[in-house]
Design goal:
Residues 1-252 form the Deacetylase sirtuin-type domain. The chain is built from 12 helices and 9 strands. Helix 1 (3-17) packs across helix 12 (241-249) and helix 10 (177-188) packs parallel to helix 11 (207-214). A 6-stranded parallel beta sheet has the order 3-2-1-7-8-9, with helices on both faces. By secondary structure, it is α/β, with parallel strands linked by helices. It has 2 domains: 1-35 and 82-124 and 174-252, TPP-binding domain (Rossmann fold, 3-Layer(aba) Sandwich); 36-79 and 125-168, SIR2/SIRT2 'Small Domain', CATH 3.30.1600.10.
Length: 252
C-alpha cells in the first residue's frame, strides 16, 4: 500500500470514528477553486499592502482604494465555485458528522456547497455583502458597484450616514466576539478537529488546534505545506485537499 492511500485510509477511519467533528478551513481549500490566497508569494498581499482598519476609517481616499480592490477582485470571487473539498465538507455536515465549519475564508463557498448558514462560523466575515459600521444595516454589492463605476466614491449608509464596508474583518479591526466565542465552544466540545488549508501560524486561528488537543480531541491536518501545528497532529497529509478529502468521505 502506498503512503498516500495509507494516509487516506487513516483519515477515513478518523472520520468514521468521530461523533462530533469540527472542520476548520483556511485559504488553501479555496485556492483549488481559483481564489488566490493572501500570504503566499504571488498572493494578494504581495501585490498590495493590506489596508489597515484605522486607515479605512480615517481616510476617504483609502476607503475608495479599498472598494476599488474589492471590485477588481469581483470577477474572480463571483465566478468561483465550490470544489471537491468544499463538497466533501458539506457532506460531513449533512451527514451530521461535522457539528460546524469554522472558516477563515470570506468567499462564502461553504454555503454555496450546501453547508447551512447556521453551521458556518466566519471568523473573518464575508465579502459578498457590506454593512454599515454605525448601525449595522446590510447592503448588497451590486448597487454599490454600479454607483462606484459611475463615480468612484466611498458609500455611506442611507439610514444613518455611517461608513459602509464589506462585511470582512480588516487588519487592525477587532475579531467578531460572537463568532470567536462560538468557535471556541465548538472546538472545546469536539472529538476531532480537522484543519484544511490553513498555515496555522497566525493567532487566533493557530490557537484552535491547541484548544482541541487540550480537550482530548484528535487533530488531523491537510495542507500542501507544513504548518505551525504539524507536531501536535495525529495525522498530517501534505497534499491537495479536494482529492484527499473526497476519497476519504466517499471511498470507491
Amino acid at each position: 500500500m502506498d503512503a498516500g492511500k495509507q494516509q487516506t485510509d487513516q483519515l477515513r477511519q478518523m472520520l468514521d470514528q468521530s461523533r462530533r467533528m469540527v472542520v476548520f478551513t483556511g485559504a488553501g481549500i479555496s485556492t483549488e477553486s481559483g481564489i488566490p490566497d493572501f500570504r503566499s508569494p504571488g498572493g494578494i498581499w504581495s501585490k498590495n499592502e493590506p489596508i489597515n482598519y484605522q486607515d479605512f476609517i480615517s481616510s476617504e481616499k483609502t476607503r475608495i482604494e479599498s472598494w476599488r480592490r474589492r471590485f477588481a477582485l469581483g470577477e474572480v470571487l463571483d465566478q468561483a465555485r465550490p470544489n471537491a473539498g468544499h463538497l466533501a465538507v458539506a457532506k460531513l455536515v449533512q451527514r451530521n458528522k461535522a457539528a460546524c465549519v469554522i472558516t477563515q475564508n470570506i468567499d462564502g463557498l461553504h454555503q454555496q456547497a450546501g453547508v447551512p448558514d447556521d453551521k458556518v462560523i466566519e471568523l473573518h466575515g464575508n465579502t459578498h455583502y457590506a454593512v454599515c459600521l454605525e448601525c449595522g444595516k446590510r447592503f448588497e454589492l451590486v448597487p454599490i458597484r454600479q454607483a462606484f463605476e459611475q463615480k468612484p466614491h466611498a458609500p455611506v449608509c442611507d439610514l444613518c450616514g455611517g461608513m459602509v464596508k464589506t462585511a470582512t474583518v480588516s487588519f487592525g479591526q477587532s475579531m467578531p466576539a460572537a463568532e470567536m466565542h462560538a468557535a471556541r465552544e465548538q472546538t472545546v466540545n469536539c472529538d476531532l478537529f480537522l484543519s484544511l488549508g490553513s498555515s496555522l501560524v497566525v493567532y487566533p486561528a493557530a490557537g484552535f488546534p491547541e484548544i482541541a488537543k487540550r480537550n482530548n480531541a484528535r487533530l488531523a491536518i491537510i495542507n500542501r505545506d507544513p504548518t505551525g501545528m504539524d507536531h501536535l497532529a495525529d495525522l498530517v497529509i501534505h497534499d491537495s485537499i479536494g482529492p484527499v478529502l473526497a476519497a476519504a468521505v466517499d471511498p470507491e
